[in-house]
Specification:
Elements: H1 3-8, H2 26-31, H3 34-38, H4 41-44, H5 50-53, E1 55-58, E2 62-66, E3 76-80, H6 92-113, E4 117-121, E5 138-143, H7 151-155, H8 164-174
């Protein structure tokens, strides 16, 4: 028996290590940062299939999708279809629908994930922390009493217990018709 055979026998054997499986991140690692610079992801998402764009609901002026780089499982974004950069450029209809979608998202996330609270906000402009500063988007981050741990502080790592596709399916299925 070789060392390789010995190692193969260890696959799946429990040990003291915890693993953070994030297979959905491989697409972004392989693509690198250039695609986000070439195409606005919030303009591109609604042009494709909902599952491909992680869209959970399409409204009249705005839509809801999962964040590709979530702070927590179920981290949603609400975006107007129009390519505008700041909230003051939104029409009254867009403002109203963003508000309505925010309320519905909170209800759905409470039902699906049993979260204890939310962080809701918009980072407008690069100086304010916007990753995609050219297209307005609002974050809805579900929070749980026990969701804070040492990973983000010590290791700059977030532990996300569900794959994005699973979360998208659960939220989209629970969204009211």
């Amino acid at each position: 028996m070789t060392e390789l055979d010995d190692a193969a026998q260890l696959v799946g054997v429990p040990d003291e290590f915890q693993r953070l499986w994030t297979p959905h991140r491989m697409a972004y690692i392989k693509a690198g940062p250039q695609p986000l610079r070439d195409t606005c992801p919030f303009c591109a998402a609604p042009a494709g299939a909902d599952a491909d764009g992680l869209i959970v609901h399409r409204g009249v002026t705005s839509y809801v999708l999962l964040n590709l780089f979530p702070y927590n499982s179920g981290h949603l974004l609400i975006c107007p279809y129009r390519h505008i950069a700041t909230y003051d450029q939104a029409s009254p209809e867009e403002v109203a629908e963003i508000g309505e979608l925010t309320q519905t998202a909170m209800r759905v996330l409470r039902a699906v994930s049993r979260c204890d609270g939310f962080n809701i906000g918009m980072n407008q402009g690069q100086v304010a922390g916007a990753g995609v500063e050219e297209h307005l988007h609002q974050h809805i981050v579900p929070r749980w009493t026990s969701d804070a741990n040492f990973f983000p502080i010590i290791a700059k790592t977030k532990a996300l217990p569900q794959l994005l596709g699973e979360v998208r399916e659960a939220v989209a299925s629970a969204w009211p018709a």
